[in-house]
Amino acid sequence: MRYLLKYGAALSFLAIAFSSCREEPNYPDAPEIEFKRVDVNYTKEFGITTANMTIVVGYQDGNGDLGLRPLVTTPGSSDPDSKAPFNSGSPYQNNFIADLFIKKPVQGSLKDSAFVKYQLPVAGFNFSGRFQRLTNDERAEPLEGEIRYTLNSITDEFFNPGDIIKFQIYIYDRNLPVPNKSNIVETRPIKLTFKE
């Protein structure tokens, strides 16, 4: 019994010692993402059915500079997430970029179809936006997790039941003076039903 206690205590000590020596992961400073899933549910309001989509991507980032606070357009704002290069009208205004593709028949073919970039019916509209800062401080540290980005703008006004769409996604970090761009990932094809 004495040996059991002696060796049990030694093993417990070793387990605690090794678990406290966990090494921080070594990710590149430019973000890397992977597509995880897309969740779709439909809602109907005022006679219009909307496909509410939540796109989930996994991320890894070496210095943790991911996410932006909401854009402040008030003149004189001191928020660094609303100043250049993240200011309104800048290509880096949004940090979650979502380009929509729709499956269309190939011209001259009765059987073949291909995804083509969707021509948005409203000039200046896009599916991109901002995701919030993932940490509350400015400390550089590796981060890993998931980003959930929700779209509520796919409606039966512009799309038909049976349309098949997908998104190409990439993100930007807060690196200055030029944010780092992640790799590009694609969602799975999504068949729109517009059924609640």
From TrEMBL:
Residues 1-22 form the signal peptide. The keyword Signal applies. The keyword Signal applies. Keywords: Signal. It comes from the Bacteria. This is DUF4843 domain-containing protein. It comes from Pontibacter cellulosilyticus.
